[in-house]
Amino acid sequence: GEFIMVDRDVKMKKKGNIYSLNEGYAKDFDPAINEYLQRKKFPP
């Protein structure tokens, strides 16, 4: 897999649920989600 740092101050709880995102389904995402992902992956 690949890790993309989305924010410099990301904090992780010691315990919690796992969150992941399969971009293979990006065509089905709300446009706002895709815009957010693009901004995080390719910042200005």
UniProtKB/TrEMBL annotation:
Taxonomic source organism: Mus musculus (Mouse)
EC number: 3.1.3.11
InterPro entries per record: FBPase_class-1
Protein name from the UniProt record: Fructose-1,6-bisphosphatase
One GO term (biological process): carbohydrate metabolic process
Entry's Gene Ontology molecular function annotations: fructose 1,6-bisphosphate 1-phosphatase activity
Sorted UniProt keywords: Hydrolase
